[in-house]
Sequence to fold (234 residues):
Amino acid sequence: MRKLVIVVLILVAGGYGLFVYLVPSVTLRYLLRLEADVAGQPAVGSGVIEVTREDNRRLFGSLGGFGAEVRGQAVILDLDGRGLLFALLRGSRELPENKNHPMNVLFYAFPTLIKPQDYLAALRKLKTLQPTADLPFDLLPMLVRFRDLSDPASVEQVQPNDLAAAFGADVQLKKATIAITDDPVTTGIEHKLPWLAGLQTVLAGKTLRPGPSVATVLSSRDFERGFQWRSTIC
Fold:
């Protein structure tokens, strides 16, 4: 019996080693920090998001590409009584989604360090150097607010250059930064959105359909994601 267990362990270890060779991956975390001015007073919100990128081209050849996993929650910026601003785990509607999506933003935030021809090596370099960079507003993920936090369907998209339209004339987003970190992934969004865990549909409460309101396309995965979601980017 003991020999059998040893043989099984060897086979499992060998299979895992083969998988690591065929599908190498890198996991790193980054801190997204938002700074705003509310009637002359600073407001700051931040959150840590984890991204895993894998190269499956050895396994699938020309059909392969770079897979991605995202774990984390929307970054919350409390605007001092004016409401909450959420930076989601999805790209904005105005730009190609893959540009400012959490799984791709590192490529654009640190362009001198990340080269597409050796992407995983560049990510390992980022983990070692742990750089910080100012993030242009067009690289921010989709920003939203709720007219009523208890009503998912009251969600509205917010433009980073025009927070005043949603929160008042004396509210302005001043700066966004991104920093590679070893800090743990941020949690706790359920304290702000207690209905999120039970959400089974899009925020509008109906099946997914494009429309003028973001409530018809946003779901819980845009506010919180584990490792169940995977997409492949060629």
In short: The longest strand covers residues 41-55. The first helix runs from residue 2 to 22. Helices lie at 2-22, 57-60, 97-100, 105-109, 119-129, 164-167.
